[in-house]
Automatic annotation (TrEMBL):
Gene3D superfamilies: Vaccinia Virus protein VP39
Protein name, entry field: SAM-dependent MTase RsmB/NOP-type domain-containing protein
Residues noted as binding S-adenosyl-L-methionine in the record, renumbered to the chain: 140-146, 185, 221, 269
Keyword Methyltransferase attached: yes
Keywords: Methyltransferase, RNA-binding, S-adenosyl-L-methionine, Transferase
Native source species: Porcisia hertigi
Gene Ontology molecular function: RNA binding; rRNA (cytosine-C5-)-methyltransferase activity
Amino acid sequence: MNVDYENENHLFDMLRNRSAFLVCIGSGVMCMEWKNIMSQSAHGTALRMEWTPQGQPSRTTLRALLGITKNTECQPKHSGMQGQLQKATDVIFLQNYSSMVPVALLVEHLSSVSFRRAWTHNGDAARGTSAPCCTVLDACAAPGGKTSLLLSLLQERAEEERTAKAEAISSLSSITEPFRVVCCERSRPRLEQLVNLIHHHFATEPALPSASPSWSADSADNVPFVTRVVEFHCVDTNKFLKRKLTDVAGSCGGSVASHTESFDAVLLDPPCTGMGLRPKLMPHMHSIASIQESSDYQRKLFDSCLHHIRGSPKVPGVLVYSTCTTTLEENEANVLHFLRTYPSLLLARATTPTQRALCNLSVVRRYGSQKETDGGQSSSSPCSFLLQKEITEVQVAKERAAASEGLSSTDPLLLLRFMPRPPDAYDDTSEDSVGFFVAVFLWRGYTGA
C-alpha cells in the first residue's frame, strides 16, 4: 500500500479508525542499560534513534497518531482524535526477533483446511457441539509476547482464508473467528502477567456474539475478543495434557487414552538455560548436569504435546520448537532424538524465499582463527546447524520412505540456529541477534510411537 506520509490530513483520515498497527520504528543506540529500562522506574532517554526506514511515518506523526507519549508537544490537528488519544497508552511493546520467527513460521505452516473446517462444519454448532476450529496450544505461554503475535497473525490468516473462501462461506458468517488458542503457564504471577498483556493488546477489538455453544443466548452477546478465542490455564503443560488423556478415556469408558487430536499446532517454547540471551553469556552458572536436566524436561514436554496433535500425511499437524539458548543438548541433540523416536515426525523444509533467507541467516561458521584438528588450513565454510549430517540422514531416509517416487526435497530444513558473533564476523551488521533456536516439525499422525 502506497501512503503519502507527508500529507498528515490524508494519513489521519485513513488510519483514525484502525485499532492495531504494525510499525517499523527504525534503529538507534541504547542510552541506558537494559536493567534500568526493564525496571520501569528509570527516567530519561533510553534510545536515541539514528535511522528510520524510507516511507515510514515520522516520530512526530506516530506520537500524534498513536499516543505513544503523554503530554507531547505535538498535539493532533484533528479534534476528533483528541478523545482517542486521551485513552491511549504511553507504552510501546517491543517484540523480540527471536519471538517473531517461531510464531510466524507456525502460522505459515498451518493448513488452510484447519481454518476452513470451522466454516464447513458450522452445522455442529446448531446441534449443540462446538465447531472444530483451528486450535493452537501455546504450551509455555508467559510472559505473552509470542501469544500476542500469534493471535494477531491468526487473525490475519483467518481473514485471508475467509476472503479466499468468500463465496462458499457467505452463509456462515455467524462464526466470527475460526481459531482458538489454549495457553498454559504453571506460574500464577506469570499467568497474570500474560492475561493482562493479552487483554491490553486486544482491548480495542470489537465485542461480538460467540459462536461457542457454551455461551447462553443472553451471555453470548458482546463477548470480548480475548474471551472468545483464548483459554488460559495455570498448570504445568505435562499435567494439563495428561488430564486431557484421562478425560478422553473417561468419555469413552475405557482406560487412559494414548493420544487425542486436540490441536492443529503447538508452539513449544520450553524453559531452557537461556544462554543465548546476552546478559547471561558471561558469566553463567549452568553446569553440565543442569543443562541435561533442562533437556530432559524439554523432551517430556515435546512428547506430551505430540500425543495431542491432529495430523495426517495430507494435512500434517505443526509443532514449532524454540529456545533462547545455544547449547547442543537443548537444541540439535533434542531434534535428533525427536526424529529418531517418532516415525511420523518430519522437519519442515523452506519452500518460500523468506524461509530460505532465514536459513541463509542461520549459519554456524568456522572462523578463520580456528584451525582444523589435523593442523591443516582453517576453514570458513558454513553449515546451517550442528549435527547436520546426522539430522539430515534421518530426515532424508524418512522422506524417501514416505515419497512414492523415492526422492527427497533439496530445500533447506527449517532448523534455524542464530548465534551471537564477534562484530567483524557478520556479513551484514543487521544480522546481529541474540542466540536462539527454532525447529519446525510436521506431524503426519499417531502410529503408536
